[in-house]
Specification:
The structure is a homodimer. By secondary structure, chain A is mainly alpha-helical. Chain A has five helices and three strands. Chain A is 53% helix and 11% strand. The first copy, chain A, has a three-stranded antiparallel β-sheet. Chain A starts with 7 loop residues before the first helix and ends in a 20-residue tail after the last helix. Chains A and B meet through α1, α2 and α5 of A and α1, α2 and α5 of B. Chain A binds a DNA duplex through α4.
Chain lengths: 125, 125
DNA sequence: CAACTATATAACTAGATGGTAGTATAGTTG
DNA sequence: CAACTATACTACCATCTAGTTATATAGTTG
């Protein structure tokens, strides 16, 4: 990307795709689907979210083309349609890991200072 | 990812990172920064957004650790801190391309049938 | 220090989004 | 067809977010 100036429409599409991944429940759903397809009930169980909520998020993932569905009797099975989402998650995880590692290494070696009221006067940033 | 059941906190962090990329203005900013650092004024010019808006988005990207800033006199220069964002965008773009290609190939070969009646033959971008 | 420039922040508004409760639909089974 | 089960949808509320305008801050220059 970024080699060519993407159109506004394309930009919005890319942003939308990122937004689809920008919710912990949806990430949990994808994670639960990674080993293979699951019914809605199983996904409800796996995520701990309500049925209505899971269903709603699944529709979103479906419309985005990230998952696909298949009906079998009373059950509906969802599965990953675009496995690149995992690649995306991997990159983000790596990114976060590095981010926090770097943040730690910038701290004054007092291992108890973190997260809550961290970042002493030091850097002006 | 998905090999281990990430904690809720981690999940939220990953989701948040995706959300940071889930806005077209921020994507434009990143795109504008890809060749190298730029001042806020240049970014305002490059994106066409208002100064206040650009500033706001930049703070968001800054806090997320995606960009970094450097002051020089009156000017503040922003640059990419975590280049993996481009990797992420590439993956998404590929994903979208495939998605649309597949969608097209599923249609009944009538080239005029599309999203809104958009997308003339020429460039796909 | 006064006037000026570049950037950041505050307060506000309109629209999007996530969650829930309740209901509707599709499919099964007696 | 009635009762039942699994999933989807609707309406609603609370919260968040992007954008705007106006103002504040940091740094420069006369």
């Amino acid at each position: 990307m970024a080699s060519k100036p993407l159109s506004d429409k394309t930009m919005e599409l890319v942003a939308e795709r990122f937004r689809v991944l920008g919710d912990p429940v949806r990430l949990r759903l994808l994670q639960a689907l990674e080993p293979g397809e699951k019914s809605v009930a199983e996904l409800v169980e796996a995520t701990g979210a309500s049925q209505a909520n899971v269903s709603k998020h699944l529709q979103l993932l479906l419309r985005a083309g990230v998952v696909e569905r298949r009906r079998e009797g009373l059950f509906v099975y969802y599965s990953i349609r675009d496995a690149r989402v995992f690649q995306l998650c991997d990159v983000v995880c790596g990114s976060l890991a590095e981010h926090y590692a770097r943040e730690l290494s910038e701290l004054p070696a007092t291992p108890a200072t973190r997260t809550k009221r961290a970042r002493r006067p030091g850097r002006s940033n």
